[in-house]
Amino acid sequence: MPIHVELVSQERKVFEEPEADIVVLPAIEGEMGVLPNHAPVLTPLTFGEMVVRKGNAEERFAIYGGVVDVRPDKVVVLADVAESSFEIDEERAVEARRRAQELLDQGLPPEQNREAVLALRHAEFALKVSRRVQSSSAGRLRIIMDDDKANNQ
Q1: DSSP 12
Q2: Are residues 29 and 43 in the same domain?
Q3: Domains contained in the chain, number
Q4: What range defines the domain where residue 61 resides?
Q5: 74-79 and 3-8 beta bridge pairing
């Protein structure tokens, strides 16, 4: 029996897979694996990598906080911010990291310092996820959603 997975950010529905085999999430208390028929859980998420596997295919996402609602047949991730590893633009992330570091080096007031630290953390994590996927010896496979199929025809 597969598990239905939905990933939604504040801006949009990022991903949906109705028949995943396993979901690995960055729960606040540590990495959490979810298989079909998992006990119901509602838990906060931290910065981390979410992995969805279906057969030999897998898709990875950079998650920047949020909450997950796990049910026996469905996982709903409500992320503060989420990016597919296929959408991460390394050049943009490198530039964002440079700008954030520049701001921190200027000695900002505390309220602006927090924003710069979060921007730096976000950029560094996006680069980490992107580079991990690129260096994977297993190769990258992408789960194709029905909407993607329709858009590519």
Answers
A1: S
A2: yes
A3: 2
A4: 3-86
A5: parallel
Q: How many angstroms separate the first and last alpha carbons of the chain? A: 30
- The mean pLDDT value for 86-106 works out to 77
Can you read off the two tokens belonging to residue 65? 């906080």
pTM check: above 0.90: no
Whether residues 9 and 78 fall in one domain = yes
Any domain includes 109? yes
3-state SS record for 52-87? EEECCEEEEEEEEEEEEEEECCEEEEEECCEEECCC
pLDDT recorded at residue 7: 96
Based on the fold, state whether residues 25 and 74 are members of the same structural domain.
Answer: yes
Contacts of 148 (CB under 8 A, 6+ apart): none
**78 within some domain:** yes
- Only one residue has tokens 């598990």, namely 3
With residue 26 as reference, give the H or E element that holds it: strand 22-27
